[in-house]
């Protein structure tokens, strides 16, 4: 049987996890598939070697990308050369639209089979990018149910597979998780999720910690945990005192075992919805990046959980509103008002139900391989 080469382009921690699950399902269907491209450490289990270290690609905001413009131009050029040289059977783009859409556009004339798994949020901002998806991508695989209708309204077909997070998560009781992390099972836990990119952490960490200490003044037995991406040394950004636990080996367990959380906007809001953790969402970038982004954003919310719920289930503190006094006051109110807390739990459960069920990675693998690869 001929070897088949699938070329992945992934630029962020969550994409690395989703890609690894997808690779596992692809190999289960056909042992002769090999992988190349750009990705992270989870993908390396599958005999994959990344063209670039993924942490160099994880940059947040227009201004931050602009500062590294020449680096990103060379990355783009080298990926294109690598693809043309290797002639993969399929190219699988996962999220990370800044680079992936430019690659897709430039590959059009070579007639590659391009699949976009976890498509860009064109319905939220920069809608013109839909034209690149329409003309340059062969297959759209989406993980949010409303996206199918959105693409249909734009005369495009897409396949909804559900959220791949359900493929890697097995619910565990808070008591067991807290015991695993060395926390007291009977005292409340606040988890801080400042993000997985260095730029995010620089902007968020101090705000999160100051907010946490203000909350602890009102809830003295509160335990504070930072869920840190494995490739990040949190102490490089801020000196963390001994009364805060840093969990980098199992950051998701740190979130799942909590009672309340402060999250950087991103995949974490979906994880917190699935775990049923009442949370607030913070997003802060450079003024220039935020100003540009605000020109393009056309939704009422930035947190995916709120977009799915169509209301503010997770209060959002964006840019200048990301203030420790406001953040702490809101979370104290959520925690202490039990009726409010329970209403939020119900809303989060409702969001989680809409995200599908386990099997997203398997369904995506079946779509990608199609009948010709069996």
Topology at a glance:
Elements: E1 4-9, H1 13-29, E2 33-38, H2 62-67, H3 69-86, E3 90-94, H4 97-107, E4 114-117, H5 130-136, E5 139-142, H6 146-153, E6 159-160, H7 174-180, E7 189-193, H8 198-218, E8 223-227, E9 244-247, H9 251-256, E10 260-264, H10 267-275, E11 279-283, H11 287-296, H12 304-309, E12 316-318, H13 324-336, H14 338-354, H15 360-369
Number of domains: 2
CATH class descriptor of the largest domain = Alpha Beta
Our measurement of the CA-to-CA distance between the termini, rounded to an integer number of angstroms, reads: 11 Å
CATH topology of the largest domain: Rossmann fold
Total helices: the number is 15
**How much helix is in the residues?**
40-55%
Under CATH, the homologous superfamily of the largest domain reads Glycogen Phosphorylase B
> Based on DSSP secondary structure assignment, what is the total number of beta strands?
12
Q: Could you describe the largest sheet, including whether it forms a barrel?
A: 6 strands, parallel
Strand order of the largest sheet: 2-1-3-4-5-6
Approximately how much beta-strand content do the residues carry?
Answer: 5-15%
Shape label: globular
Rg from alpha-carbon coordinates:
21 Å
H/E element order: EHEHHEHEHEHEHEHEEHEHEHHEHHH
Classify the secondary structure makeup into a structural class. alpha/beta
Mean pLDDT: 90
> Architecture of the largest domain, according to CATH?
3-Layer(aba) Sandwich
Low-confidence stretches: none
